[in-house]
DNA sequence: CTTTACTATGTAAAAGTTACACATTATCTG
DNA sequence: CAGATAATGTGTAACTTTTACATAGTAAAG
């Protein structure tokens, strides 16, 4: 963005050729890693693959790839997600960059983490592709590189994010019961919530559409099914003001 | 983080030499830009310098520099801040990366934005250094590169952040009045708040220490002075659970 | 037809938020 | 030194939100 500090202390003059300047900049390999959360059997899962590196043989790693020349980071993230899962209609948010000099055994590589949520049952995985699989978040112990740290960072980010945005609806079928919704929140936030208060909360937000259908094939009294009112949410996104710490 | 997609479709085998792999990765110039907010005369300001590039002659730009070999991004941000302002005891948070391919006229440069808040009166600026100065946020129209976009992004981030963390105390003198505190919040959040409710809110948080001194040299009834209880805040950081969107 | 395992719902108490007005106290001015 | 000015400091009632908690209903399975 600017000449470096040593250069800066020379007598002032403007730099005429920005290209020449940038050519002198040091360069680093840059990758994107996707932390894809999914939800199944009331558990939060993360999409992982076996690492390609002998160094990390049998360790899991995230879906990642280099950023191409002239590719935006967002683009790279969507590309990777699409290449690996076939999906292209998913929220994908930049979380942050990880830059520890020794995070990659091959030398310095900086990575930018992206986070997403998707519905496991809506997306068929190419299972044989490097042992791609949904791994339960709670017993994801060791991972290749600093990927465990990245997952932890994204999980914390997700917990916060889901309290402010209805990301969770990506994890549910189009029609879902309130119980399914609550299970989702309980799994992601790792808390248990009072059912009556949970329902009241969502009822008061008025973002669920009662579609007048019931659950099928459940071994107990079926619950009502709802849809999420995406349109209304888009219109009424609140900008909150409140100081709380 | 992984071999790219074309390579991936070759028959499976593990990569023995991670170094060789990384050497093949494309590399990009990477910079850090610091968005330093300060507060003076009840206005929020940003620290800017004149751009070095003839291309952006007379435009302001952020404090930025390349990331050195084997330097962490956080380190780079703290280094830049220290080099330019002399400060090294400030919160500095990564906001996000900006990667538009044409954001720099010299070719592709990716930058990671960091955001900070500091007390203008506590830090003497090297004024002749590239016309470094505090520029009022509200009339910062054009900037070099995509720096206006970066500032806007960081400002939005800051507004949110300051509602959850007491960052604002960095902008105030050690001893401050409640009015000063309120002015700060009003300036950053761009709202006006009820004085009684504001005071009640902070009183209930119990994070202010009444130091039993009064303002001096004010042309009206002086207010009480307080200190922020950093220690107590550290102990009681709340982890909130609440769904709201 | 009884058990099981859920769904569905209401209410009272507590906590937090909002809106609002008046007395007080330094300083400044004439 | 009296009055005007420009702040500080405080309390309360209405409202909203959150929390805690218990009972009745229904489909399926045996």
Description:
Two copies of one chain form a homodimer. With 245 residues, the first copy, chain A, is α+β, with helices and mostly antiparallel strands. The first copy, chain A, has two domains: 30-161, Nucleoside Triphosphate Pyrophosphohydrolase (Alpha-Beta Complex), CATH 3.90.79.10; 174-236, Winged helix-like DNA-binding domain superfamily/Winged helix DNA-binding domain (Arc Repressor Mutant, subunit A), CATH 1.10.10.10. The first copy, chain A, is built from seven helices and nine strands. Chain A has helices at 5-8, 18-23, 73-85, 147-161, 178-189, 195-205, 230-236; strands at residues 27-40, 43-50, 60-61, 63-66, 93-98, 110-118, 133-136, 208-214, 224-228. In chain A, strands 1, 2, 3, 4, 5, 6 and 7 form a seven-stranded mixed beta sheet that branches. A two-stranded antiparallel sheet of chain A has the order 8-9. In chain A, a hairpin with a 2-residue loop joins strand 1 and strand 2. The first copy, chain A, is globular and about 70 Å long. The model of chain A is unreliable at 5-11 (pLDDT under 50). Strand 1 of chain A pairs antiparallel with strand 1 (27-40) of chain B. Chain A binds a DNA duplex (30 and 30 nucleotides) through helix 6.
Q: How are the elements arranged and paired?
A:
2 copies of one chain form a homodimer.
Chain A: H1 5-8, H2 18-23, E1 27-40, E2 43-50, E3 60-61, E4 63-66, H3 73-85, E5 93-98, E6 110-118, E7 133-136, H4 147-161, H5 178-189, H6 195-205, E8 208-214, E9 224-228, H7 230-236
The first copy, chain A, binds a DNA duplex (30 and 30 nucleotides) through helix 6.
């Amino acid at each position: 963005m600017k000449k470096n500090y040593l250069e800066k202390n020379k007598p002032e003059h403007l730099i005429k050729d920005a290209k020449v300047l940038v050519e002198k900049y040091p360069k680093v390999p840059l990758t994107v890693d996707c932390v894809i959360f999914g939800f199944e059997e009331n558990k939060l899962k993360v999409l992982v693959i076996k690492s390609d590196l002998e160094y990390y043989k049998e360790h899991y790693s995230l879906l990642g790839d280099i950023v191409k020349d002239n590719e935006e980071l967002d683009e790279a993230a969507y590309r990777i997600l699409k290449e690996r899962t076939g999906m292209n209609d998913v929220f994908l948010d930049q979380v942050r960059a990880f830059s520890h000099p020794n995070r990659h055994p091959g030398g310095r590589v900086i990575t930018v983490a992206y986070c997403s949520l998707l519905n496991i049952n809506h997306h068929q995985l190419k299972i044989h592709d490097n042992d791609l699989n949904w791994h339960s978040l709670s017993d994801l112990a060791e991972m290749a590189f600093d990927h465990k740290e990245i997952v932890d960072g994204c999980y914390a980010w997700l917990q916060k994010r889901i309290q402010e945005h209805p990301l969770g609806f990506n994890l549910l079928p189009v029609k879902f019961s309130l119980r399914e919704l609550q299970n989702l929140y309980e799994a992601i936030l790792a808390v248990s919530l009072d059912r009556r208060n949970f329902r009241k909360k969502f009822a008061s937000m008025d973002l669920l559409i009662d579609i007048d259908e019931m659950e099928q094939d459940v071994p107990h009294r079926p619950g009502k099914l709802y849809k999420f009112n995406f349109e209304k949410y888009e219109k009424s996104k609140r900008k909150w003001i409140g100081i709380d710490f």
